[in-house]
Amino acid sequence: MKRHLLFLVFLCSLNLISAQVFDVETLKLSGSKDKRINLVIISEGYQSSELNQFITDASKVSNDMFLESPFSEYADYFNVFAIKVPSNESGADHPGTSTDPLESTISPAVPIQTVDTYFNATYDSFGFHRLLYYEIDGANANNTEAKIMMVLADNLPEYDAVVLLVNSDEYGGSGGNFAMSYSGFYAPDVAMHEMAHSLFSLIDEYFPIDETLAVEGINMTQETDPNLVKWKNWIGIDGVGIYQHEDDDGNPKPWYRPHQSCKMRRVDWDFCAVCKEGMIEKIHDLVSPIEAFTPNNITVNNPTLPLDVELTLIKPIPNTLTSQWTLNGSNFANDVDDISLTSTDLTEGTNTLTVVVHDDSSLLKVDNHDMSSHVYTVTWTINYSSLGIEDIQSERADYSISLYPNPVSSILNLKVEGANTEELKVDILSLEGKTIKKFRISNVSGERVIVDDLSQGIYLINFYANNALIDSKEFVKQ
Questions:
Q1: Which residues form the Secretion system C-terminal sorting domain (predicted)?
Q2: What is the 3-state secondary structure (H, E, C) of the chain?
């Protein structure tokens, strides 16, 4: 789950910076750092005497964030920590070098100043006054990015997302490797918007300041066919459509967004459905909802019957997780966190028990488009004889399963990602349940399936591990 610090990239720079340990305050603790997304808020432009105010400001950012969807539903997937890094002076630099004509009335009204802060927070970056960044030109002349990484390495190396909170009432922020926000009225919204760039890979839904930032992404595309656009499942729902970008002068651009009023377009709006889905998918990439399970290979000790099997799940609010328990290829239970096995449930020899956990949130519509779906499993191998349980082995596996393109005319690509190297059994079926094709797939090579011989229509594709159905998708044959 954890993001690895890029020490090798910055090795020369880091060697020039002395290690420093700062006070770290926990603002939100949902669970172990290795099983949660760790958001770190770092003070910038706060003097030592102002660090209590920093905690107040950081707490507001954190608290407001988890009032807004999808953070509110997945609040228990996050920890939040605040690192108190003191600066010699308050605020941020205002060079007065903005060249943006739309902001010509803003920049002159702000007094030009240079202040001594730890991370060199600077307005007017790249010629735009509101672009608050830790290097005005991105050249890292002060080794600022290396300084940020050293602070993280020395104080909270388990970080997943970072927001530098700048002690300033002047509106501003930026994305990049590390999000940055001013501390004023819209700070929580700016922090969410910028973190949506840095952690969730979302793109601005206003036309980007720099046209080179217009790229294919979760919420930006050049595709205009509603049957092919990546958010096709959402078309016509919650205001989702295909809306053309315009530049600041009203000139149309060959790029399109899914919504007219999304936080990625204006920070005081909510996230649109497409962005929420992309954010949740990233959460699923980083955190398994299966926090723990018993019995495991550590805790098994002279197992007896009845055998209690239990999951500890990180549940969304409200809970949208589903679970399917399969024993020796047959369904045993659904949507429960624990079961109990008796001697009548087991056969002599090897028994296989698998539980499959999905997130069935209405905020996700990934069943029949190109985005990956996430599947989490635990399998127990139980050796049983007339004398009782002789041995139990357990193994967990997380899968990311995708198929593309969808709709498909000729070749359907299947991809399975996960640490487990076991092959999955795959069946393609008609909607009437007739088996059309059978094959196996591993996460090593993937699979290219020729579907030229299929009639036009909708088909099901089922994925099995340990004789348990772990995922089912639809695809359209054109």
A1: 403-469
A2: CCCCCCCCCCHHHHHCCCCCCCEEEEEECCCCHHHCEEEEEEEECCCHHHHHHHHHHHHHHHHHHCCCCCCCCCHHHEEEEEEECCCCCCCCEECCCCCCHHHCCCHHHCCCECCCCCCCCECCHHHCCCECECCCCCCCCCCHHHHHHHHHHHHCCCCCEEEEEECCCCCCEECCCCEEEECCCCHHHHHHHHHHHHCCCCCCCCCCCCHHHCCCECCEECCCCCCCCCCHHHCCCCCCCCEEEECCCCCEEEEEECCCCCCCCCCCCCCCHHHHHHHHHHHHHHCCCEEEEECCCCCCCCCCCCEEEEEEECCCCCCCEEEEEEECCEEEEECCCEEEECHHHCCCEEEEEEEEEEECCCCCCCCCCCCCEEEEEEEEEEEEECCEEEEEEEEEEEEEEEEECCCECCEEEEEEECCCCCCEEEEEEECCCCEEEEEEECCCCCEEEECCCCCCEEEEEEEEECCEEEEEEEEEEC
